[in-house]
Amino acid sequence: MSLDSGAVDDLRFIRQTMERSAAFTAVPGWGMVAVGASAFPVAWLASRHAFDLRWTEIWLTEAVLAVAIAIVAIQNKATHHGLPWTSGPGRKVALSFAPPVAAAALLTLPLLRSGLGDSLPGTWLLLYGCGVIAGGAFSVSIVPVMGVCFMLLGAAALLLPANVLPILGNSAMAAGFGGLHVLFGILIARRHGG
Fold first, then answer.
1. At residue 187, does pLDDT exceed 70?
2. Distance of alpha carbon 159 from alpha carbon 152, whole angstroms
3. Residue 96 CA, distance from chain mean position
4. Relative to the CA of 60, which of 4, 12, 170, 188 has its CA 20 to 30 Å away?
């Protein structure tokens, strides 16, 4: 028995509508744990530098590594569960997450040039949190909560007194990009499967 082309078109429309309205559930909990774990040695290495170009290079290298880990983990979870990750909700997550992260990247060079490299931890954490909240609007409910935690940590890092910022700024990076990813990765893995 074959379906006529109108029925096939209707089924395609229904499937696409459901994909667009569904939540992105391919958030990889264990992948987030791996991203967080990779941040701890980087924080230790970066702590030997004072928010200068070398410090920035170390953290940007970590960002590239973290993105690679996250993409592989998302793809693996999506494939394992038969979920689309490059269409519908996955695309919405990526398109919502990207602008705040791009803003953080664009602010990096002017802050360094102005001698304000010590404000990078707070700026990056704050804008990353904005991206997580925005992307998390199309994902499981715990993701925006993680974004709020990043924003709070970023705001705290920006408000640190100048005399403690060199010491605690890098610790804020470890706590956020390391600790929050590990904590929320475990929660996501337990509640939403891997």
1. yes
2. 11
3. 11
4. 188
